[in-house]
User: What shape does this take?
Amino acid sequence: MNKLSTAALSLLALLVVVTGCSKGSDNTVLAKVNSSSITAADFRKQLESLTPQMQQAVAADATARKEFLEDLIGIELVVQEAKKLGLDKDAEFQKSMDARKKEIDEYRKQLDQQRAKLDQQLQDANKDELFNSVLKKQLGEKIGKVAAPTDQEVKDYYAKNKAKITAAVGKQVSLKEIEPQLKARLQQEKRREVYLAFAKELKAKATISIDDKALETATASMAKPQELDLSNITIKPGPKKEAAAK
Assistant: This one.
């Protein structure tokens, strides 16, 4: 049987010390210092503040563990002495602690905000996954069978929205220049109609109430949505004209 290396033994000892006094044994009293106690949780917390090398040194040697505990006892005695002298009531001490508390409260607030943000992201991801799962299961086949827009539908769409397209692009463009984008948009709108029909069926079975006043207040400062968003349209450049012969 191969012998474990010194480093492996140290690491094993560290695991025993750090994890061996967890859960129910966290409150195990390792030392009584006047009216205070140093628990296994206190010992582990201070041990974890050391570098990995120092942790291994303390964990691997019984004498080092005892010395580390003696250090904790010494710290506790000094703190108790400070309280006896009334230093915890000192104005300068209170000012320092108030500043420290403010700093910690602000950090805690940031953590709470971050936690709330992550929780919201998780909820949104859950909704998105459920939404897409239902659409795939209930509408996947219908959406897949939506016919591509005909040339006439594209022409009619272009004619109806020509002024808006010109405004969005910044210049007048021909149907040929944006035909692929318009076909894709019409296809998307047809697929959306399938979804809207499905949503309408669900609404008919549901009990829904809308607070119009609250809605108006919530959206009062929002910009009005564009009727037609063609801001992503790109125009393919035409063939370059050959330079006129001199």
Notes: The beta strands are 29-33, 36-39. Residues 122 and 128 are 10 Å apart (CA to CA). Confidence is low (pLDDT under 50) at residues 1-23.
